[in-house]
Amino acid sequence: MDIQSLLGELVTLIIMALALGMDAFSVGLGMGLIKLRLRQIFYIGVTIGVFHIWMPLVGMLIGRLLSDTFGTIATLLGGGLLILLGVQMIFASFKKGDDPLITPVGFGLIVFALSVSLDSFSVGLSLGIYGTKTLLTVTIFGLVSMVLTWLGLLVGKKVQAWLGSYSEALGGSILLAFGLKLLFPF
């Protein structure tokens, strides 16, 4: 493989990683509207980065064996999880003093990371069929999504200070809208 085609593949993968990572940024923006410490933001970004490594990796492996039927299922599951998180955050914003049912800690963090990385699984299926370089692909996807998640969470944290008590409802609305967009592309 010559340097020009390698550079072309690298640019293509970075563009794909940015496109996939933008959902992590958007959802991070919404999740950042709840009160998070910097340590939590760090762990959330790393967790989402890891999920954006292993989800496309699994997708690529399966994509080499099966058709792209699972891509639609992954998108539906991701949309459903985001809707669930969004509705939960909206309801939690009206209950003063109660902790939200799902927070980006422990199991909630796993659900959160899974919801934003399911589209990476779908892309991994496609890339597996076409036989792209696995290690390069998953490394770029993981790093870009981690950085974009951190940016989204940090911007959300800043906005949260301005919006006060309405910030959690706004964050939930963002997650809900993003989930609906996954289920009903418009």
UniProtKB/TrEMBL annotation:
Keywords: Cell membrane, Ion transport, Manganese, Membrane, Transmembrane, Transmembrane helix, Transport
Pfam family, one: Mntp
Topology of the protein relative to the lipid bilayer: Multi-pass membrane protein
UniProt-listed InterPro entries: Mntp/YtaF, Put_MntP
Claim: Transmembrane helix is one of the keywords in the record: yes
GO molecular function annotation: manganese ion transmembrane transporter activity
Domain of life: Bacteria
Residue spans crossing the bilayer: 12-34, 41-63, 69-94, 106-129, 135-156, 163-184
Subcellular location, principal: membrane
GO cellular component, one term: plasma membrane
Keyword Disulfide bond: no
Location(s) in or outside the cell: Cell membrane
Similarity-based family: Belongs to the MntP (TC 9.B.29) family.
Task of the protein: Probably functions as a manganese efflux pump.
Name of the protein: Putative manganese efflux pump MntP
